[in-house]
Amino acid sequence: MAFGWIDEQAELRRRAGLVRTLRPRAAECPLLDLASNDYLGLARHPEVTEGAARAARTWGGGSTGSRLVTGSTELHAELEGELADFCGFEAALVFSSGYAANLAAVTALAPHGSLIVSDAGNHASLIDGCRLARGTTQVAAHADPDAVRKALGGHEGPAVAVSDTVFSVDGDAAPLTGLAEACREHGAGLVLDDAHGLGVLGDGGRGAPHAAGLAGADDVVVTVTLSKSLGCQGGAVLGPSRVIGHLVNAARTFIFDTGLAPAAAGAALAALRLLRREPARAARAGEVARELHTRLTAAGLEAVRPDAAVVSVRAPSPEQAVRWAADCRAAGLSVGCFRPPSVPDGVSRLRLTARADLSGAEIERAVRVIGETRP
Q1: d(CA 120, CA 163)
Q2: Which of 122, 138, 234, 275 is the most exposed place for a label (fewest CB within 10 A)?
Q3: Residues in the chain with pLDDT < 50?
Q4: Are 218 and 189 in contact (CB under 8 A)?
């Protein structure tokens, strides 16, 4: 029978407690949200939603084609210019998603004969970029510049190291300065995914590379998503103008994908301008994360100290993690639930996102619910 193996896989997932299901949410949800990536609370901000609506009224519901045909509007160019300026880079290129941006950066910058050194804790989009690239990939120990240095030392030819700036599972930060030093010793490039740093870290939320003094460097390329701190959708690659020009000509997820919808570009541009005007939102997201961590550990829970806005709470098993998240939901709290294969170390977790718009009472309520429902 065609696809008969799917039933076997489904049964294996069921036995391991790893079945995933869709749960459509209503427009108005009564749950306290600590599951989304809306770090700055901008997804429903009136300026952001109006930016989306205005762009849709002006440019239409879709971009109508790939960026190289009809999918580039003046709005896309405006967003790229302001993103590059805000984050401190020469140029930017907007994609339909952060996933597509990562695939583009890794595949286009790792041609045949090159070496990619990839952190063991990298996001799936970076891993898939490594798999699709023509170069050879070597996985390095998590957040270990010496491991990157050793891998680069054994290679002759073009090379690039690839890492998240803030890892999405535990919220720990990569040692960016050490990684840059290791790459520069061997003339290698550095590609950093700042999905969880933009809007949270750096001066006014300009991102982890900006905070580390790497913004604008000619050997550093950064990817960002517009779907987290900016509360919208889409992604971008930031870097030297010659790198961006290369992506326009060589990145398949740019050349062959339909351009980002105008509504998403308009919303992202409005959110970026709002962040420029209200930089305290970035600092507040970090404050909320640290307060969550302090309260959770004081309650006897095993929580990982956050470097940005992600707070991870360890669970005993995948099954108990699922039940714990469901019990939180029943008590009015929405939390993320990370299980294998989404977690590289095999440890299941509740994953909380600290939003800048959470009140002290909401933080207290969240900690109480998590503590009362623990397995």
Answers
A1: 9
A2: 138
A3: none
A4: no
Query: Which residues are registered as beta bridge partners of 350?
Result: 313, 337
pLDDT attached to residue 18: 78
Q: Whole-angstrom Cα distance, residue 218 to residue 233?
A: 27
Residues 6 or more apart from 181 whose CB is under 8 A from it?
Answer: 145
Q: Token digits for 99?
A: 């996933």
Starting at the edge strand found earlier in the chain, the sheet holding 159-164 runs 91-95, 235-239, 220-225, 189-193, 159-164, 115-119, 136-140
Q: Do residues 152 and 117 make contact, with C-beta atoms less than 8 angstroms apart? A: yes
CB 258 within 8 A of CB 63: yes
Q: How far apart are CA 73 and CA 347, in angstroms?
A: 44
Structure tokens at 35: 């599951």
C-alpha–C-alpha distance, residues 301 and 233, integer Å: 33
State how far the alpha carbon of 237 is from the alpha carbons of 69, 161, 168, 256, 303, in Å. 20, 16, 19, 16, 32
Picking from 293, 352, 347, the residue whose alpha carbon sits closest to that of residue 320 is 347
Beta-bridged to residue 66, according to DSSP, are 258
CB 80 within 8 A of CB 95: no
Residue the block writes with tokens 């950093």: 192
What order do you get walking across the sheet with 310-314 strand by strand? Answer: 32-34, 333-338, 349-353, 310-314, 303-304
Is the CB of residue 107 less than 8 Å from the CB of residue 126?
A: no
Other beta carbons within 10 angstroms of residue 9's beta carbon come to 10
